[in-house]
Amino acid sequence: MNLEEWLGVTLSDHAQHFNIQRRLLEDLVGYHLGLSWGELQLQKQRALDDELIESLAIAVRRLAAGEPLAYIIGEKFFFKSMFSVDSRVLIPRPETEILVEKALPLLDHSSKTVLDLGTGSGCIGLSLAKERPQSRFYLIDSSLDALAVCRVNQDSLRLDNVTIVHGTVGKASFDGPWDSGAVDLIVANPPYIAEGDDRVTSSVHGFEPHSALYTGEEGLECHRLWLEWSFRQLRPGGHFLFEFGKDQEDPIAAFIHQTDYSIIEVVEDYARIKRFFILQK
Length: 281
Ligand SMILES: C[S@@+](CC[C@H](N)C(=O)[O-])C[C@H]1O[C@@H](n2cnc3c(N)ncnc32)[C@H](O)[C@@H]1O
Description:
By secondary structure, the chain is of the alpha/beta class. The chain is built from twelve helices and nine strands.
């Protein structure tokens, strides 16, 4: 069977029932063959051997059950690097790359101290650490499982300006190995979905770690606690840059107004939805 025939048969078997898109299948085959999507388009007559067809059949059954492709193939490209991912970490989202782009100009090439709160796979902190080797990065998460994945990514990117820290951000007793009150920049993509929110897709709710998704009855608990905690860590003039969910700008702004941060910018994502705050202490 060649590639085009396999795509046709698989789509007609699964597409209507399980909403598997052609592009998803192409990405899956491309991963197995080591081809980019563009290269794959030029090789549609390529023969697939029986062993590959069997591996693809297993992967397609997982896709049909709603499992995200990134967990099946074990990796996700983010910013400029490939990250290992599995069910212990949130899959890095494309819009979060905007947070990295906005953070970079806040870090010149001198030595700075940076915290990444709720680092998960490490996609934000490690991407920044790769671009700013003179700075020292502390990547924090309350999940030891997530930090094990982060460590794999740190090792594969060979970054020695990164310290991985286990801790619960927001807990008054949590102190890291940096100088509190002297941090230059804090970045974060906190959990921001309300517990029990039934708009979350079954693929996300069923497969991604709940500790990365849900926080409190309104989805704002982490933001509230992390704003207060971060204020104590930052030096005067330091920045806090973080992501938030759709329609959360106003309630989070209300928390901010109870503090002494200045709002520098509210940044939109690719869909022109307000998605990030840049604050200064
Ligand atoms: C939305 S995920 C973000 C992961 C990654 N930074 C990204 O952008 O893909 C949130 C992360 O915060 C962690 N987390 C949740 N509550 C936390 C807390 N109180 N302190 C530290 N980490 C926490 C979760 O384990 C999860 O890895």
